[in-house]
Write a structure and sequence with these properties.
The complex is a heterodimer of chains A (570) and B (85).
Chain A (H helix, E strand, L loop, with lengths): L1 H26 L1 H26 L7 E2 L12 E5 L11 E4 L1 E6 L5 E5 L7 E5 L12 E10 L8 E8 L18 E9 L4 E7 L9 H4 L11 E7 L10 E8 L8 E9 L2 E11 L11 E6 L6 E4 L20 E5 L12 E2 L6 H54 L5 H45 L4 H14 L1 H18 L4 H61 L5 H5 L3
Antiparallel strand pairs in A: 1-18, 2-17, 3-6, 4-5, 5-16, 6-15, 7-12, 7-16, 7-17, 8-9, 8-15, 9-10, 10-11, 12-13, 13-14
Chain B lengths: L10 H19 L11 H40 L5
The chains are: A alpha+beta (570), B mainly alpha (85).
């Protein structure tokens, strides 16, 4: 058997020689080279032409939906930002305050440090007018974090709008007791939870205070107090942010404006709610000049008012940097209903009329097919049902009696059953047909979904492309590795066997590419020759060596009898 | 000249070619000594990701590929007479 294997390997070797001859003969380098060149030129031409023509007069089949610009939609038009460039308290009327840190360009941190008897206050001297908010969404946002754990349930801090920029003299000042204060956004912190609450002046003037108009949380238009959602994470813990934001919807009728959104957010969680039943005081902000104040109650830990890291994250003071300070703005919500609207099909261009015609024809055919089936269904089923109804009564009896003459007293019943079955058949057929149509349409929808999924960025296919090109970015290093391996071979006369195997495998791919299955089979045969041939040669070498050793032994020692045989146990 | 390579658009060759390329990607994704770049986790990870994200294509191709390959190989062997050489 082993010798026959050797003969077979000889035959394979001959086949291998033929293979190389044929490879050299068939490769016809010049022809293939020309073909590759031609294909490359055509491909480049197609790509470049496609790119050029896709936006040109022939196939500008997609145009951007004008509403589809949510990615670039900046919902906030700022009315007030505090672009502090001095980073000191000279622009504030303040007490027990400091600016311990600033990141430049309006990203300062205002720290209020109340003591056991006096609340800390800082009022920006820059006046604010909010007239533009009439008929729009007015937006407030501020970020605060406690420097240490708040002491108890009355650890409140706030930002507020006041018409009086003078620093109050009262040591226990609270903005909700100030008649000049029209609006307060307050962090009401406890040891367990934080809550964002807002006060709006109801009388529209300096008659009442916010606290005097408060009749409980969200208790209707009579109360100045509106409470946002309670939230646990973030705000009441030291070193974590608590964003407090509110959107006041003044786009409706002036007497029934609603707060569309109150939301608070911590660094590890967020919460928001909508208060629809609360009627905002009509345009409390108009005809007044406000000042933005910050307050931290006495006996509280320090409160740090920071720039806002949430959208719009673009620093209005300095383009290209993040963070906003003391932001009041007009809010225009993204048009959520058109976010997923696909681009419009543009039927313009040279082929536009054809595309338009095809679409119209397709829609026309499909609608007519469905209408036809529905029409036939509506026509036949009542007709057959009517027949069955008629037969069901007197005719069955008559036909049964008539049939009994011929010995079949079930004639009427059979006829009735026949038409009943026909009715059932039609019903089933058309209902099934319509269901099939529905399923076909569903299937088409699925196909469209699959196609969509195929091309969206989260899809594996595009992932592959992304990863592939990401891998390509490391290609120079990979090639350098391979090249260093090759150089290693030249310098040391040795190659890593892995590189040889990879190279040989790539050669196999090349064979398939150029010569298909024929090349693959011959590559396989060559592989067999190399790898199995190595084992065959090893076997041959060992066997021949063994034979030589045995013959030498016999030559030297002769054909001695085994001791086992002498003892007779063999 | 017989046209039977990928370059000639032969479907059997294309499927075979696709599988061989995928095997090469799988090979290069292995973090073992059999892979010449097996010690470079950057590349192996990328290749592993590429393979994991595209192996569905192999499953998709498998039934068709199996049918075409077995029939095609049988026919080609008969036509070319490679077995007899």
């Amino acid at each position: 058997m082993t010798h026959s294997n050797l003969y077979r390997s000889k035959q394979r070797r001959t086949s291998h020689i033929n293979l190389w001859k044929r490879l050299n003969r068939e490769r016809e380098f010049n022809k293939n080279h020309g073909r590759i060149f031609a294909i490359t030129v055509i491909l480049i031409g197609l790509i470049l032409g496609g790119v050029t023509l896709s936006g040109g007069p022939l196939f500008h089949s997609m145009i951007a939906n004008p509403n589809y610009s949510s990615n670039h939609h900046d919902p906030i038009v700022p009315l007030f930002t505090f672009c502090d460039q001095k980073f000191d308290l000279s622009q504030y009327n303040s007490r027990l305050s400091s600016i311990p840190f600033h990141g430049g360009c309006g990203t300062d941190e205002l720290q209020l440090n109340p003591n056991s008897t006096t609340s800390a206050i800082a009022i920006i001297k820059t006046p604010i007018t909010l007239d533009q908010a009439g008929g729009k969404n007015l937006y407030f946002i501020k970020d605060m974090q406690w420097n240490t754990n708040p002491a108890g349930p009355f650890s409140d801090a706030a930002f507020y709008l006041t018409t009086n920029s003078t620093l109050p003299s009262s040591r226990t000042y609270n903005p909700t007791n100030d008649k000049s204060v029209f609006f307060v956004g307050m962090w009401e912190a406890t040891s367990a939870t934080s809550e964002g609450v807002f006060y709006f002046i109801k009388d529209g003037g300096d008659t009442n205070t916010l606290i005097s108009e408060s009749h409980g949380c969200n208790s209707g238009s009579a109360s100045s107090l509106v409470c946002g959602p309670t939230f646990t994470p973030g705000g009441n813990l030291p070193g974590t942010d608590a964003y407090l934001q509110i959107i006041l919807n003044y786009t409706g009728i002036t007497t029934s404006q609603a707060i569309s959104t109150i939301s608070v957010a911590g660094t590890s969680g967020s919460s928001s709610s909508t208060v629809n039943d609360y009627k905002l005081p009509p345009t409390f902000f108009q005809a007044n000049t406000f000042y933005l104040g910050f307050w931290d109650n006495s006996n509280n830990p320090s409160a740090i008012f920071r720039d806002n890291g949430i959208p719009p994250s673009q620093n209005i003071c300095c383009a290209g940097t993040s963070g906003n300070t003391e932001l009041i703005g007009l809010y225009s919500p993204p048009i959520s209903t058109v976010v997923n609207t696909p681009p419009n099909l543009d039927t313009g261009g040279f082929f536009g009329p054809i595309i338009r015609a095809l679409i119209q024809i397709g829609v026309f055919i499909l609608s007519n097919v469905i209408s036809f089936f529905s029409y036939v269904y509506s026509l036949i089923v009542p007709l057959v049902a009517g027949l069955a109804t008629i037969l069901d009564s007197a005719l069955i009896t008559i036909l049964n009696a008539f049939g009994s003459i011929f010995g079949d007293n079930h004639l009427g019943t059979d006829v009735n059953n026949f038409f009943t079955n026909v009715l059932g058949w039609f019903t089933n057929i058309f209902e099934t047909a319509l269901l099939v149509w529905a399923s076909v349409l569903g299937l088409l929808n699925n196909i469209i979904n699959i196609l969509q999924a195929f091309f969206i960025p989260a899809d594996p296919f595009l992932n592959f492309l992304v990863i592939f090109f990401a891998t390509l970015s490391g290609l120079p290093t990979l090639l350098a590795t391979i090249w260093s391996d090759i150089m290693y071979f030249y310098v040391n006369g040795s190659f890593t066997i892995q590189m040889v195997l990879i190279g040989y495998y790539v050669f196999g791919i090349y064979e398939v590419y150029m010569r298909g299955t024929k090349g693959f089979m011959e590559w396989l045969k060559f592989s067999e020759l190399i790898f199995l041939g190595t084992f065959h040669a090893s076997y041959w070498f060992i066997k021949e060596s063994y034979d030589v050793i045995v013959k030498l032994k016999q030559l030297i020692f002769g054909n001695t009898v085994s001791p086992v045989k002498v003892l007779g146990t063999g | 000249m017989e046209k039977s390579g990928v370059i000639d658009g032969d479907p059997v060759a294309i499927i075979l070619f696709a599988y061989m390329v995928f095997v090469l990607i799988l090979w290069l994704s292995q973090a073992n000594s059999f892979n010449p770049i097996g010690t470079n986790a950057t590349y192996t990870t990328q290749y592993a990701k590429a393979f994991a994200n595209t192996k569905w294509f192999l499953w998709l191709l498998a039934p068709l590929g199996g049918y075409i390959l077995f029939n095609g190989l049988e026919n080609r062997l008969k036509e070319t007479g490679v077995e007899e050489e």
